[in-house]
Design brief:
- It is a multi-pass membrane protein.
- Keywords: Cell membrane, Membrane, Transmembrane, Transmembrane helix.
- This is Lipopolysaccharide biosynthesis protein.
- By secondary structure, the protein is mainly alpha-helical.
- It has 2 domains: about 1-220, no CATH class; about 230-475, no CATH class.
- It contains 19 helices and no strands.
- The chain has helices at about 5-30, 30-60, 65-100, 105-110, 115-120, 120-130, 135-155, 160-185, 195-230, 230-265, 270-295, 300-305, 315-320, 325-340, 345-365, 370-395, 400-425, 435-455, 460-475.
- Helix 1 (about 5-30) packs parallel to helix 7.
- The longest helix has about 35 residues, at about 195-230.
- The two termini are about 15 Å apart.
Length: about 475
Amino acid sequence: MTGAIWSVLDNMAGQAITFVIFIILAKMLTPDIYGMLSVSLLVTQFFKMTIFDSIATSIVRKSNPSNIDYNSAFFLCFVISIPSFTVVYFISPIIEQYMHIEGLTTVIRCTAVIIILSGASRIHEAWLSHNMLFKSLALRSILSITVGGCVGLYLAYQGYAVMSLVAQQIVTASISLVILWWKTPWKPEFKISKKSFKESFDFSKHVALSNFTNFSNQNSDVFFITYFLGPAAAGIYSAGKRIVNTLNLVLSSALMRVSLPAFSRFKDDIDVLSKKYIKMSYFTVVITAPAFIGLAVLAKDITILLLGDKWIASVEIMQIVSAVGFVTSIGYYNHSIMFARDRPDRQARLTMLYAISNIIVFFIFVRYGLIATALAFSIRTIALYPLSVWCACDLLNIKLRMYVKELALPVICALLMGGIMVWLNDNYFQIVGWGTLILKIIIGFVIYLSFTLLLSPKSKKQEVLNLFKSIGSRKGM
């Protein structure tokens, strides 16, 4: 298999295995346990995203980094990980007191081990990525997630509650470390350069600021929900978003991995680039709009069948967040255009705006409950999306009116499908079951495809049919 296929497999297989394990564990554990773990993982993710990923980026960006560059970056990561772990270990009681979650200190101290494990393996991951050895990365993901998940399932079955999730995370990180060291031909040596060390440190300082913004943008909701509403509410909210995020990653990952190289190839030909941008955005909406609106309609069935009745409170969260999920999927193309046209400054400003608005919105609305928080998140997503589109369209000399005209029809057809499915749900499909769910999905697909073929111009009809035929032929392979 090619590197690109292994790269997609790495992402999709990891997501699929993680999701299956989450479903099984969710039937054994309670929302407050998941909420407690979410808070503890915020601490480890902070160091991974803002420090280790930044240092790795300083190496990967180079066209031909030397072994000395890798050595310097490795020791920089590892040296930082030790005091980071120590600080987290000693401030964990303060975090527990601040968040008002009994037992959080022990959970944070245990998961803090992941900081050291990440510091000792992140540069190995960067080496494999830079040399496009995605098969090894895919092997790492599949084996580590599977083994860690099995450990978590066993301990949960034995009644270890939150510690089963902690063990799952630590085992996953440990197996990942072992495989990365095993599969990476380069091994760290005490051959470092002061110049290389300084270059990595200086560059990573600037990347860290951007990564910190991304971290705040992605995780501010969990923090505020846990602080104001408690770990159980955070667990419910995370479950509602998790299914939506998994679907988004699965649907968008393959498209996103080819978009930046495809756009970059025609970066100097505005006419060709603009046509590819519009075409890829259109086809993505054709797939994701009905998928996410369908998920919103079927949220109750999916939650009961996959997670169980104790997670029923997450249904409304899933419905609200998934209703605008396709906006996130097509938004990735706007980011790719900005990078392809060498305007990362626009993306940086957008990311900063997203983070600030996220924090403000969640701080204001979280005290009014989970539904208000999810609504605020969705409204913010829709309100800010035109800015992202404008940044991309301005670089391509595309009028916003043309963009909206091209993408409006699939969204309208998906909304019509959703309305009919809601009516059928209320009047004919009130029994929850796997057979009923599959039937609803088939009916929804037929309704959506019928509206699309009925309302689309002739040229678009054939393109849509070819798209779904290609998807069907790949699934049949």
